[in-house]
Amino acid sequence: MNDISQRQRLDLYVDALNRDDLPGVAACYAPDLHMTDDQVDCPSAEAAMAFHRRVALRPEILNYVDRPGRIAAEIRWTLRVRADAPDHPAGPLPKGETRSWVSFTIIDMADGRFTRIRSAPYKAAP
């Protein structure tokens, strides 16, 4: 799985999210993935995929740097709610609602897959 560069893996992930290709998204995650931000905490790849089934995320990479085993990126995210989410940590979200923000995201990798994704929003997207 580590036969492609970290940037190529990130580009595959972004493309899969933007096409709603959930198997493609899952292929980027290690089983023990931990994905977290200021509102969502997914302690496994299975939990992250359950999150993706509830909301559609559309990322756009604004800036990118990496070193072996770690990616840091500035990303513009757009979230669209697929089904009513009355229990969302930010408060109830109705189906079809859209939100956008820009965040700093750090991704740790091992064997070509994401093992930890930490994201910190810093501004609402224009």
Reading the helices and strands in chain order gives: HHEEHEEEE
CATH architecture: Roll
How many domain units? 1
Shape: globular
Strand content: over 45%
Helix content: 10-25%
Number of strand elements: 6
Mean residue pLDDT:
92
What summary fits the major beta sheet? 6 strands, mixed
* pLDDT < 50 stretches: none
Structural class: alpha+beta
Cα Rg: 14 Å
Per DSSP, the total helix count is 3
CATH class: Alpha Beta
The CATH topology is: Nuclear Transport Factor 2, Chain: A
Secondary structure elements and pairings:
Elements: H1 6-18, H2 22-26, E1 29-36, E2 41-42, H3 45-54, E3 55-67, E4 70-81, E5 98-110, E6 113-124
Parallel strand pairs: 1-6
Antiparallel strand pairs: 1-2, 3-4, 4-5, 5-6
What would you note in describing this structure?
This protein is of the alpha+beta class. 22% of the residues lie in helices and 48% in strands. The protein is built from three helices and six strands; from the N terminus they run H-H-E-E-H-E-E-E-E. The protein has helices at 6-18, 22-26, 45-54; strands at 29-36, 41-42, 55-67, 70-81, 98-110, 113-124. A six-stranded mixed beta sheet has the order 2-1-6-5-4-3, covered by helices on one side. The radius of gyration is 14 Å and the shape is globular. The mean pLDDT is 92.
Which structural traits does this protein have?
126 residues; 6-stranded mixed β-sheet; Nuclear Transport Factor 2, Chain: A; 22% helix; alpha+beta; 6 strands
